[in-house]
Amino acid sequence: MQVNIAKKAAGEKAAAYIQPGMTVGLGTGSTAYYTILRIGELVRGGMALQAVATSADSEQLAREQQIPLVPFAEVQGIDLDIDGADEADEQLRLIKGGGGALLREKIIAAAAGEMLVVIDESKLVKQLGRFPLPVEVIPFAWELTFKQLAAIGAAPVRREQEGQPFITDNGNYILDCHYRQIRDAAVVETQLNSIPGVVENGLFLHYAVKLIIGYADGTVKEIIRHGPARRSF
Ligand SMILES: O=C[C@H](O)[C@H](O)[C@H](O)COP(=O)(O)O
Questions:
Q1: How far is the first Cα of the chain from the last one, in angstroms, to the nearest whole number?
Q2: Residue 27 alpha carbon, nearest atom of ligand 1
Q3: Ligand 1 site, residue 22, Cβ cutoff 6 A
Q4: Which of 64, 105, 106, 123 qualifies as a FRET site for 56, CA 20 to 30 Å off?
């Protein structure tokens, strides 16, 4: 695989925030990939840490990297979640789920004390919505859920893969919602969450505390969100 310098720079930089003994959330996608590789190096170099994965793919990669995975029943808290995004604005609001992992990603982000987000410069936007917003729906009567989404102007399209419906790790469908511009993300989030059949949406509005942006020359820039720290359980 050809190395993406911007994604690698951001992904590796995030791993520098990991302290020995932490429980780390492993994100999903081609940027979090570099974070997981770096964490693998830390583990093999002797750093004691444990991790939980946000997707079957990331779990597999973690195993290949010899990163210790802790069963969810034994998780006492997730110190740091490091994940990618499809879009991010300067308020650190995100669209996620381009790879279909949004549900597990949001569960882990919500349980984590801090979420760091790693992106390349192309993902930073003034306004969310150009990237179609992934919405995970249960397959039962998905056509009705689809119509409800269309009725609120979400312009849904069922995601396909090789001519078949894309199936998430949770056995659900993804409806990609072509808003083009999301003017009031909080309103959109509330609308989506109130439709029966919607399991989760890809808006992550209050999770990220730090955005790490990688550039093609290998440099990174960080944007920090100030405010009260969320606590993991
Ligand atoms: O479902 C996938 C995740 O939300 C990814 O974190 C997101 O799509 C970004 O992935 P990438 O870093 O490959 O662009």
A1: 38
A2: 6
A3: no
A4: 123
Decide which of 3.40.50.720, 3.30.70.260, 3.90.1150.10, 3.20.20.70 is the CATH code for 133-200.
Answer: 3.30.70.260
Task: Tell me the C-alpha distance between 71 and 99, whole Å.
Answer: 23
Select from 3.40.50.1360, 3.40.50.2000, 3.40.50.720, 3.40.50.2300 the CATH code of 5-125+205-224.
Answer: 3.40.50.1360
- Ligand 1 in contact with 101 (CB < 6 A)? yes
Indicate if ligand 1 lies below 6 Å from the C-beta of 100.
Answer: yes
What is the average pLDDT value for the chain, to the nearest integer? 96
SS3 string, 19-37, reads: CCCCEEEECCCCCHHHHHH
Q: Examine the pLDDT at 233 and tell me if it is beyond 80.
A: no
Distance 95 CA to ligand 1 centre (A): 9
Pick from 95, 96, 204 the residue to mutate for probing ligand 1's pocket: most ligand atoms within 8 Å of its CB: 96
Amino acid identity of 78? I
* pTM of the predicted structure, to 2 decimals: 0.96
Q: Quick check: 232 pLDDT over 80?
A: no
Q: Cα separation of 51 and 24, whole Å? A: 5
d(CA 147, CA 226): 39
